[in-house]
C-alpha cells in the first residue's frame, strides 16, 4: 500500500467517523422533546418564586401509615428550602437545595449534614422529589412514541440524567398531547430497575393555570405501598437570596 493511498484511506475513515458522530448527536438532540419537558415543568410549578404546602400520606395495602407536612420555598430551578411542619416532634428540620447540592439542618446538630437527592425522605418520596422539580435542567429528553390511554393521546418521552447527581437515572414521562400536562412517570435506577411509578392527579386552577395538586407514588416491587403528596396553599412569594444559604437556616421559622 502506497503512503499516499494510506493517507487518503485514513482521511476517508476520519471523515466518516466525524459524520457518524454528528448523526448520532443529531439523533440524541431533540429540542422539541426538551421544550415539552420545560412546558410540563411550568405546569407543575410556576417559574417565579413561590411557596407551597405539601402533605405526604404513606399507605400500605390501603392502610394508613405515617404522615408528614412540609412547607416548600422555591426560587428559580436551583434554590429550594423544605421545612418540616408536622409532626410537631420533627418541626425544625430543614432541607436546603443549592443547585444539585443538598443539606439537612437538624436542631440537635450544629452543622448541616450533606444528603443525596436519591435518598429516601419518607415512604416512596425521595429528597429530590420535594426539593428539586427541574426535569428540563436535570435530564436530556427524547420522544419515544404516542400512547392512547382511555381515549386520550399522550406523548411518551424518555428522560436520561445529565449526571449522577440527580434523583433518578432515567424517567419515562407521559404528557397529554394537547396540553403537555403531566399524566404519569416511571422512575428508574442506574441499574435499569424500575423504582416506582408516579401519577399526576386532581388538576385545579392555581396561580392562573391548571396544575396537578396530587402526586401518587407506587412502589414498583411492592405495589401495595404508596405515598400520596397533596399540594395546597400555593402562592407567589418574594424570597431573598440569603434565605437559600446554610448560614441562614437557623433563622427560618
* Total domain units: 1
State the distance separating the first and last CA atoms.
78 Å
CATH fold annotation: outer membrane lipoprotein receptor (LolB), chain A
Number of β-strand runs: 15
CATH level 4 superfamily = Lipoprotein localisation LolA/LolB/LppX
Strand content bin:
over 45%
Structural commentary:
This protein is α+β, with helices and mostly antiparallel strands. It has one domain: Clam (outer membrane lipoprotein receptor (LolB), chain A). The protein has helices spanning 3-28, 31-44, 127-131, 135-138; strands at 50-60, 63-75, 79-86, 94-98, 101-105, 113-115, 120-122, 125-126, 139-149, 152-161, 170-176, 182-188, 194-206, 209-219, 225-236. The strands form two sheets. A 13-stranded antiparallel sheet has the order 6-5-4-3-2-1-15-14-13-12-11-10-9. Strands 7-8 form a two-stranded antiparallel ribbon. It is globular.
Summarize the structure.
This protein is an alpha+beta fold and 253 residues long. 19% of the residues lie in helices and 48% in strands.
Amino acid at each position: 500500500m502506497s503512503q499516499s493511498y494510506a493517507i487518503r484511506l485514513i482521511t476517508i475513515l476520519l471523515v466518516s467517523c466525524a459524520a457518524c458522530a454528528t448523526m448520532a448527536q443529531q439523533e440524541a438532540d431533540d429540542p422539541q422533546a426538551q421544550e415539552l419537558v420545560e412546558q410540563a415543568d411550568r405546569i407543575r410549578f410556576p417559574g417565579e418564586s413561590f411557596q407551597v404546602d405539601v402533605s405526604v400520606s404513606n399507605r400500605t395495602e390501603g392502610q394508613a401509615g405515617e404522615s408528614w407536612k412540609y412547607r416548600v420555598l422555591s426560587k428559580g430551578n436551583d434554590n429550594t428550602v423544605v421545612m418540616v411542619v408536622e409532626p410537631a416532634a420533627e418541626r425544625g428540620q430543614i432541607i436546603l437545595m443549592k443547585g444539585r447540592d443538598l443539606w439537612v439542618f437538624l436542631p440537635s446538630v450544629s452543622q448541616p449534614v450533606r444528603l443525596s437527592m436519591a435518598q429516601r425522605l419518607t415512604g416512596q418520596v425521595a429528597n429530590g422529589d420535594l426539593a428539586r422539580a427541574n426535569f428540563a435542567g436535570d435530564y436530556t429528553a427524547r420522544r419515544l412514541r404516542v400512547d392512547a390511554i382511555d381515549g386520550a393521546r399522550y406523548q411518551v418521552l424518555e428522560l436520561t440524567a445529565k449526571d449522577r447527581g440527580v434523583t433518578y437515572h432515567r424517567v419515562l414521562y407521559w404528557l397529554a398531547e394537547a396540553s403537555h400536562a403531566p399524566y404519569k412517570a416511571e422512575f428508574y435506577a442506574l441499574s435499569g430497575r424500575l423504582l416506582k411509578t408516579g401519577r399526576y392527579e386532581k388538576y385545579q386552577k392555581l396561580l392562573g393555570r391548571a396544575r396537578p395538586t396530587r402526586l401518587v407514588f407506587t412502589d414498583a416491587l411492592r405495589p401495595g405501598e404508596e405515598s400520596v403528596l397533596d399540594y395546597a396553599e400555593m402562592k407567589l412569594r418574594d424570597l431573598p437570596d440569603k434565605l437559600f444559604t446554610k448560614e441562614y437556616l437557623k433563622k427560618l421559622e
